[in-house]
Amino acid sequence: MIPNQILIKNGIVYDPINKVNGEKMDIAIKNGKIVEISQIDKSKAKIIDASGKIVMPGGVDLHSHIAGPKVNLGRLMRPEDHYDYVMKLVPGIRRSGSGYTVPSTTIAGYKYAEMGYTTVIEPASPPLKNRHTHEELDDTPIIDKAVFILMDSNWFILKYLESNDIEKCAAYVAWLLEATKGYAIKLVDPGVAIPWIRGKGYGLDLDDQIPPFNLTPREIVTGLCKVNEKLKLPHPIHVHCNKLGIPGNYTTTLNTMKAVSGLAGEDKVAMHVTHVQFNSYGGVSWGNLKSRAEEIAKYVNSVNHITLDLGQIIFGEATTMTADAPFEFALFHMTKWKWGGAEVEAEAAAGIVPFRYKAKNYVHAIQWCIGLEVALLVKNPWKVVLTTDHPNGGPFQKYPEVIAWLMSRKARSKVIEKLNSRALREVVLPSIEREYDLYEIAIITRAGPAKLLGLESKGHLGIGADADIAIYDVNPLEVDLSENPELIIKAFSKALYTIKNGEIVVKNGEVVKHIYGTTYYVKAKVEDELMNQVLGEVKNKFKEWYTVSFENYEIKDHEIRNLKPITAGGA
Amino acid sequence: MSEELCEIIIKPKKAFRVPVDMELIKPENIAGKTLNELLNELTVYEGNRERKFGELFDVKGEPVSDASKIRLIIEPSTRKLWSIGMGMTTGEIVVKGDAGHYIGAKMRGGKIVIYGKTGSWIGAEMSGGTIEVHGDAGDYVGARFRGKGSEAGMTGGMIIIHGNAGVEVGRGMIKGTIMIYGSCLEFLGANMKGGSILVKGNCPGRVGSGMTGGKIVICGHVNSILPSFYIDDKVDKTKVKGNVIEGPFYLFIGDYMAAPKVYGRLFISIPSNPHLKRFLELIEEVEA
Question: Is residue B28, in this structure, part of any structural domain at all?
């Protein structure tokens, strides 16, 4: 085989992990890795002239519902989402697909690649149905992927936490991650699936009891945070806080953040608070909803153990889907259209409700402002990750618009003009002057999430990194992007080149090659004796409780294409 | 419309074994093109294969530049020709023979006449124009597509069916007229919000389920009325699109399962439905 060599010449490189800020440099690729320029044979290498173009590491999205049983239920529920968004088959190059807010696997992979994203994480999968999630991810082309496993309502974990047995709980979590080939601990409205079994649980707060367990969500969060610390997992606990989407919930969010303070080491992230926009509400009802982005940002600025992702909303179609089933049920009563509920039997819970965000709606206008306020008020961009919580806030295809809003006050004010006028009196967004630069955008879309996920070969362009590279056709040295937001949207929607594992997969914004990425999972180390003891207990309960046998529950290595373990704790 | 229409005759070259999607073959796409352009530039899908129009069809006639003066005649047509006149805005299409699904779906203007049977989704979500079927139609005549919310549905235009129709005629209809001279099946006018439907024949039941507005007139036999409809009055005649329909009719209001305040009106023929006599007694009781 002839080694695949590419030389990207004269690009304007943004690589925050290696502190490269808009410098003109060459990047050499050999066998899917970034190498020293001297190591490639310039006469044989394919040369890409990137002069006057932005070169960034491939994008990393750590929270996007693109696969799994509830995404699939969303697809079933929304045929109307698929009529008008069809991607045709191009024989030999790409497969067909359809769907906008809940697209088929192929569209998800291709569209991400077209935007220059190369790593995407499915953030919530019930462990029992994780085989399905992996089958869908296996079918998702181009991007690298991983799955976060829902653990907050898992019977075993709750039993161990109830008896305050962190050791055994950690052993179980380690087994569960390896058995389901998961990547990190995901908590969704911690503990909510337990009352939801009885049709309750809406507005469950941090210190409410969740019978039949003698536990509160606070104990679940802190317990799993300790487990995470004990196992030294690469990603901190990924938390969707309690009371999501309920006015006045910002205090719960702050209390959750405070609860894990000091549980991780100095300067180490203990908790990632996801789609914080939905958790930063003041007021007591939808009628007087307030933005509390300032309070959230103030706290996050003052500590080092919290990171956030935005969950920015986009006006237009969305499909809300979360493992917070009671909230979805309440939302259904607001929209009065369609609702799907599932997975209560699969160690979690889920709800799906189609939704449309409107600029003239008071609540939606405030939600739109909150996401951007958080992003702009948190001073350190390494603490922020750009997401729309696809498809809850809006489809991921709209990321370029979010980038434009963050980079350009002009782009923001264009939207602000159209917003509900009453909402504008309640928000501080119009007065915020900060504009992100490309270096900061590279942090929140690539370097930051890659670092947060502990993927050492992703999110940067240093020697030895995976050759996942995006080249965007816009020259930041010649045009002032903040004055020309339409150029940002144009450039970031359709990458000039996307290179994945050293192969050109996108050229001029069109997919030119269909390849499959890697699926990452975490292997955590636990003493054999403890593990055997815990597995003994688990096996007994499997006979009692489960619809599948212990042997069939574990996903075997051969079931997944390109599986790659990441060893927890490094090395 | 003047009689001097430019007639273009389209003839299939073979008997199709898989559906052929005719969405692009409509007067506005044909107007102003030479015969050569028409045969080589327009494309149709035969199954999943994209074909030049000229590969599958013979065409006679030279199109004029004014789309509203064009009459496309498809002869002979078969059940395999789908989406004829889908989204058309002007002109006329005459189909001699059977036709497949989605005929005139999302249509905005113009006229389609079919001399034969058709498949499902005739005039689904149309907003203007006329469709006339001299034969039976399939299911979902003038209905809204699957999964759409209450904002979607037929918003205008007229569908006339001289034969029978299937289930869910006019589902989610907002405006416009559907006239069926034969009978139809269950869920006539389900989730209807406005517009009017006339059925000269019979209907098995579940008429107007979930309707909140609009008007349904049934001259034939109806097996039963949903319990969420209230009897309101007895009327001698009613009008559909200006045509007087002689009764007498029971007038029901419903469907009260759909909303607390509803305006859906159901006119059911009294002579054809002797089994609904108890409603007559209720009206007389109140009047007395």
Answer: no
Complex ipTM more than 0.85, yes or no: no
Angstrom distance (rounded) from CA A161 to CA A27:
49
Q: Nearest chain B Cα to A77, which residue? A: B147
Check residue A444 and report its DSSP letter.
Answer: I
Rounded Cα–Cα distance for residues B237 and A127 (Å): 64
Q: Does residue B39 sit within a domain?
A: no
CATH class of A5-57+467-511: mainly beta
- As a whole number of Å, the CA-based R_g of chain B is 21
pLDDT tens digits, B104-153? 999 999 999 999 999 999 999 999 999 999 999 999 999 999 888 888 89
For residue A286, the SS3 value is helix
What is the residue range of B257's domain?
120-287
Structure tokens at A536: 């003994």
C-alpha–C-alpha distance, residues A378 and A380, integer Å: 6
Per the listing, tokens 């920015």 go with A312
pTM over 0.95: no
SS3 B104: coil
Across the interface, of B48, B147, B152, the residue whose CB is closest to A78 is B147
Does the structural domain A59-453 have CATH classification 3.40.1190? Answer: no
**Which residue is listed with tokens 């599958």?**
B56
Domain count, chain B: 1
Residue extent(s) of CATH 3.20.20 domains in chain A: 59-453
- Shortest alpha-carbon distance between residue B223 and chain A (Å): 30
Is residue A213 within 8 A of residue A249, CB to CB? The reply is: no
* CATH 2.30.40.10, chain A: domain bounds: 5-57+467-511
